[in-house]
């Protein structure tokens, strides 16, 4: 069964209560549950992982290279604008990935407009709240389905 790994960066564990006017009221647990249910319907395992620290995210990206992960969906959160190390980990493992943001980062503060990930990503989904993850998952599922076996 193909696997898609969903990575959540710092402060996303606070979804539902953190700035709901910006990030919405969905909790991370409810987002993960919907993604896993959709994956199951498509015959795909969806694994999720969240950390507020850079090193565990990097280590999980490294592990994805050998655990049969086919795609990564990542919301690097604040690391979007600061983490060359996480970018380098994604580049090193060579797995296709989709960058996700709940808010429209291009309509926010100037520093949020630069991403260390977008130029490596297969695509970027931003501004649709929790649905951003779902749209990214649909894209990854579609790409998996069209991949020659």
Write the layout of secondary structure elements.
Layout: E1 3-8, H1 20-23, H2 28-41, E2 45-50, H3 54-64, E3 69-75, H4 84-93, E4 97-101, E5 123-126, H5 131-146
Parallel strand pairs: 1-2, 1-3, 3-4, 4-5
How would you characterize the overall build of this protein?
This protein is an alpha/beta fold. It contains five helices and five strands; from the N terminus they run βααβαβαββα. The protein has one domain: Dehydroquinase, class II (Rossmann fold, 3-Layer(aba) Sandwich). The chain has helices at 20-23, 28-41, 54-64, 84-93, 131-146; strands at 3-8, 45-50, 69-75, 97-101, 123-126. α4 (84-93) links the parallel β3 and β4 (97-101). α2 (28-41) runs parallel beside α5 and α3 packs parallel to α4 (84-93). The protein starts with a strand and ends with a helix. The record marks 18 as: Transition state stabilizer.
- Count of runs of 4 or more consecutive helical residues: 5
Spatial order of the strands forming the largest sheet = 2-1-3-4-5
Residue runs with pLDDT of under 50 for 5 or more positions:
none
As for the number of domains, it is 1
State the end-to-end CA separation. 12 Å
Q: What name does CATH use for the topology?
A: Rossmann fold
Question: How many strands, what sense, and barrel or not for the largest sheet?
Answer: 5 strands, parallel
Q: How large is the radius of gyration? A: 14 Å
What is the helix content?
25-40%
Could you state the order of secondary-structure elements as H and E?
EHHEHEHEEH
At the first level of CATH, what is the class?
Alpha Beta
Structural class: alpha/beta
InterPro entries: DHquinase_II, DHquinase_II_CS, DHquinase_II_sf
Binding site for substrate: 75, 81, 88, 102-103, 112
Active site: 23 (proton acceptor), 101 (proton donor)
Organism: Usitatibacter rugosus
């Amino acid at each position: 069964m193909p696997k898609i790994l969903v990575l959540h960066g710092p402060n996303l564990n606070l979804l539902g209560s953190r700035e709901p006017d910006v990030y919405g009221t969905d909790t991370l647990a409810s987002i993960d549950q919907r993604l896993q249910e959709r994956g199951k319907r498509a015959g795909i395992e969806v694994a999720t992982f969240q950390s507020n620290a850079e090193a565990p995210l990097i280590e999980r990206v490294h592990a994805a290279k050998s655990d049969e992960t086919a795609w990564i969906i990542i919301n690097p959160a604040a690391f979007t604008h600061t983490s060359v190390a996480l970018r380098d980990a994604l580049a090193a493992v060579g797995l296709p990935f989709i960058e996700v943001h709940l808010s429209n980062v291009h309509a926010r503060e100037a520093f949020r407009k630069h991403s260390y990930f977008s130029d490596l990503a297969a695509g970027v989904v931003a501004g649709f709240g929790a649905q951003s993850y779902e749209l990214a998952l649909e894209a990854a599922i579609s790409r998996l389905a069209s991949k020659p076996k």
